[in-house]
Amino acid sequence: MGKTIKSLTMRDAFFTRLYELGRVDRSVMVIAADMGAPALDRFRVELPSQFLNVGIAEEAMVTIAVGLALAGKKVYTYAIMPFATLRCFEAIKVNVALMNVPVRIVGVGAGFSYDDSGPTHHSTEDLSVMRVLPNIHIYNPSDSQMAARCADFSYHLDQPCYIRLDRKVLPDLKTSAYDLSVGGRIIKPGKEGYLLATGNMVHHSLVVARSLSRKNIDAGVIDVFRIKPIETEWLRKAIQKAKWLVTMEEHLLSGGFGSALIEMLADEGMELKVKRFGIRDRYYYEYGGRSFIQKVCGLDPESMAKEIIKWLQK
Questions:
Q1: DSSP strands (E only) in the chain
Q2: Counting runs of H as helices and runs of E as strands, what totals does the chain give?
Q3: Global confidence as pTM
């Protein structure tokens, strides 16, 4: 699986693995809301009784998924991220979270992934919104190998979860073995502080760490791929010797990953200097590609490295 998976988009890596599981376990079902994908064609053609496209009817998609899950099916819903979450938020709250039904919600297009479609398709609020719902686990993988592993992990998870996938192929991080149930992995150890990033921003954090090292700043990198619940015990141990922390997310700062980390630090009584990078309180209508939009809002590696150096010098 390895060589093939890492060259796929996260979406296709996820559904390729899910297809393999579905061939063995006919209780696996995928419900899409007017969304296709090369990997989903195999479900549609070869496992037609395990695939349903409800059209532009996201709330109905969630309600149907809950009914099938209560009947013993392992159900996955799928759509572009804003439509997989925000458009049907009340249905997720009432039918999935409130009743703790193990529906697996899969969204594609994290952050500015749909850079060519404008803020209606940017996914910059979903973490804040989904994080407030009790019972739902949130996973934000950082490469295609991890996305495929999320298919396996969610298959065995008897609880609702939300998996947010990037739209394009991200480089394989090639790290040593890690445990998805822990929710994080140390990509690069650090002696002074840590850059804690999630999703595609993990790749930016590695570039930033190299820039900081040229200024004799030894910064480690931690990939936090489970946003909820944050694994408090593991993370506390990982950062126990750090003098400072920086969080990075391609998401609104209000209620996002950085907020979750600060809440954890406060609850644990850990007093650490923290700087958050994310999207300020506005929508971005700029076009010109994802890298350009990131630069406009200060989320490119060069801008973040400069800001961190200035911050540490204060």
A1: 28-32, 51-53, 74-80, 104-108, 137-139, 161-165, 184-188, 193-197, 219-224, 226-228, 244-252, 273-279
A2: 13, 12
A3: 0.95
Going along the chain from its start, the domains and CATH numbers come out as 2-165 (3.40.50.970), 184-313 (3.40.50.920)
Sequence-separated (6 or more) residues with CB below 8 Å from residue 146: 173, 180, 225
Residue 3: what pLDDT? 54
**Smallest Cα–Cα separation from 22: which of 53, 44, 2?**
44
For the segment 124-151, what is each residue's pLDDT rounded down to a tens digit?
999 999 999 999 999 999 999 999 999 9
Task: Tokens for 122, please give them.
Answer: 């940017």
Give the mean model confidence (pLDDT) for residues 196-206: 98
Task: Please provide residue 160's backbone torsions phi and psi, each rounded to the nearest 5 degrees.
Answer: -65, 145
Q: 255 burial class (0-12, 13-18, 19+ CB within 10 angstroms)?
A: middle
Q: Which of 273, 206, 268, 202 is nearest to 237 (CA)?
A: 268
